[in-house]
Every structure is written in structure tokens, then in C-alpha cells.
Amino acid sequence: MKFDRITFDPKMMGGRACIRGMRVTVSLLVNLVAKRLSTEEILEAYPYLEAEDVQQALQYAAWLAEESIHPLEHAAP
Predict the structure, then answer these.
(1) What are phi and psi of 27, to 5 degrees?
(2) Contact 69, 41 (CB under 8 A)
């Protein structure tokens, strides 16, 4: 999956995932959505963001949280 709006800069926000090089972290947007703010409300509060920024932040968070099962090999007794 391509996350072209998610950026990382060790000199900004401690290297956390941000939106398009701005000081807006993915975690902030995910938390706002978790608090039931709509995309429209988020864009009103942060007019320099775009709807796609919010969508991609959620997609990135979902990608990070994706579970994978890795079976362990059992050693012979």
C-alpha cells in the first residue's frame, strides 16, 4: 500500500508519522476520529488539511495494526 501523505522526519515531532511534512501526526488524526469528530469537523479545526489526509492517516493506522499469525515451530522433545 502506498502512503504518499505520511512522512517521517527525525527533526520533526520526534520522527513520528506526520501528514505531508506538517506538524500534524497520524496519531492526532486517529484520536480525533476516535473521539467521533467527523472529517468535516477535523478539516474545520485544521483548514490546511485535506480529506485525503484524514483518510490516509486511518489507512496507515489500520495497516500498522494488521495482525499476522506466525506459527512457531515446536522443538522435538
Answers:
(1) -60, -35
(2) no
- Torsion (CA) 30, 33, 38, 40 in degrees, nearest 10: -20
Contact (CB, 8 A) for 9 and 18 = yes
Q: pTM for this structure?
A: 0.82
One-letter amino acid identity for 50? E
Cα separation, 29 vs 19, whole angstroms: 9
Three-state DSSP state, 7: strand
Domains and CATH numbers, the chain: 6-64 (1.10.10.10)
User: Over the stretch 30-71, which tens digit does the pLDDT of each residue have?
Assistant: 999 999 999 999 999 999 999 999 999 999 999 999 877 767
